[in-house]
Design goal:
The structure is a homodimer of 296-residue chains. Chain A has 296 residues and is of the alpha+beta class. Chain A contains eight helices and eleven strands. In chain A, strands 1, 2, 3, 4, 5, 6 and 7 form a seven-stranded mixed beta sheet that branches. Chain A has a four-stranded antiparallel beta sheet with strand order 9-10-8-11. The radius of gyration of chain A is 21 Å and the shape is globular.
């Protein structure tokens, strides 16, 4: 089976559909498969999700950044979402037959090309970050396009990893990085009491001392009237769906309610599901190489 | 992702390695991937496991049967395993993006070609069978090559589905069919008492009134000293690994022992593992189309 990398670039244009059409075309022309493309007018921002082989994804990401630098003028951009450039952020995500290190290398190569060939300063972030204060995107975006104009010239902490120490006159700067896939995972409870879901969410999420790399909230779903623990798993290799689900099972039992079912929103990496099966069966000595479907 | 079919033809030659080399070459030349090829001298029989797209697998199966009919003379064949021809049996197994009906159609097309182009009588079996007394291979093989010589000419029940009503002078006859993938699944117990594994096997297996499409035995593994329930799941869509494992969990608990771990032998279809994950998470509304790895 082919190697697969996912890429989810964000662009600072969310009102002109012809812009998104152009970007999607550039990505498809590079041989990648576009899984989703959406615009948000109030954020004035587009997000494209695509997959392909590492070489194709690299080319598509660079070509899309180039096209966006021709189409967007950051001097005129306004929107609610923080941003530093026309192509605001490019994350590479290892999916199949590719390691995180491979994606860090992709971020470096694409970042270098964007810096040198397009003259756009690039900050490496997340797993590709070269400094601790560039791991988190909000830190990289601090001051945004407007604030970065001066700071990039004067503040040594704002010196980019690639490209010139001044913003591109129209395209600003770009954050390029590598990160694990995000899994949007919801668990529905057989109660309408949102307080129970909130209490469980507090036990689960990292920010209140729960499981690493887990974001969680308790909400109530109007359609069903049921309480739900809604989660983002930011690194399923550190905290698996099995670990999260087991923890919720415990919390649910101690509160006298039950899990009705669970849902996955959007796209999911295969390993995240296989890990659940392997744990359930206490399976040992098995590897993905023995799955028939993946052999052709 | 590509469509994938598995094929596991059995040939009546298990002593001459050059025969197997020839057959493997023919299959690879047709664009398929050979996963395993083995000979058994006392059975005087070879088994090749290969995968590929439906069109490639069809061509490979026909070409292999043709080559075997040139290389093997059934008049001289002796071996312990029952058989009716040079290419004794050809099963097609749906793996990815292919239905059982698709594989039944493949069996019909390949059977027709073997019958008409090679002059070898073909019996359709398993899911491709045209009569109830041809579903099981032992029924199709009754009398074997030697007995079939006369019976095929005189017994209306032995009239083949394709090809002439007389055996090919060297290659005999061939059974061609479609069946689900077989899963070899073992569960190890934290006891050396083989009687417990045997008792659980009796509860599990179809032949003693247990779960449909499950074969099971209780054995003791020399290396570990542990008792094991060793199983073949003949149709995981009817009786899933989750159902089998849950049943063993119940049986184990009522006998005061525990499951140590489990193992899968050989190759496994992806769906069989995904079913386990979906059941474990009580996952609803999800489909394989949302697995990132499978999108390229």
């Amino acid at each position: 089976m082919k190697q697969v990398v996912e890429c989810i670039p964000n662009f600072s244009e969310g009102r002109d559909p012809s812009f998104l059409d152009e970007i999607v075309k550039v990505i498809k022309d590079a041989g990648c498969k576009v899984l989703d493309a959406s615009m948000d007018a109030s954020h004035n921002r587009s997000v494209v999700t695509f997959v392909g082989t590492p070489a194709d994804v690299e080319q598509a990401a660079f070509s899309a950044a180039k096209r966006a630098s021709e189409l967007i003028d950051m001097e005129k951009h306004q929107g609610e979402h923080p941003r530093i450039g026309a192509t605001d952020v490019i994350p590479f995500v290892p999916i199949h037959g590719v390691t995180m290190d491979d994606c860090v290398e992709m971020a470096n190569r694409v970042g270098k090309r964007i810096g040198e060939e397009l003259g756009i300063p690039v900050y490496l972030y997340a797993k590709a970050a070269t400094r601790p204060d560039r791991v988190r995107l909000p830190d990289v975006r601090r001051g945004e396009y407007e604030g970065l104009k001066e700071a990039i010239k004067t503040d040594p902490d704002k010196k980019p990893d690639f490209g010139p120490s001044q913003l591109h006159p129209r395209a600003g700067a770009t954050a390029v990085g590598a990160r694990p896939p995000l899994i949007a995972f919801n668990v529905n409870l057989n109660t309408g009491d949102v307080k129970i879901a909130r209490a469980i969410a507090r036990k689960i999420r990292e920010s209140s001392g729960g499981l690493p790399h887990v974001q969680a909230m308790g909400i109530r779903i109007e359609e069903t009237g049921l309480a739900q623990v809604t989660m983002n798993l930011l690194d399923y290799r550190s905290t698996s769906m099995e670990v999260v689900f087991s923890k919720i099972e415990e919390e649910v039992a101690s509160r006298g309610v039950e899990i009705v079912n669970s849902e996955l929103i959007g796209l999911v990496p295969l390993d995240a599901l296989l890990d659940v099966a392997f744990a359930r069966l206490k399976l040992e000595g098995f590897s993905k190489e023995r799955i028939l479907d993946l052999m052709v």
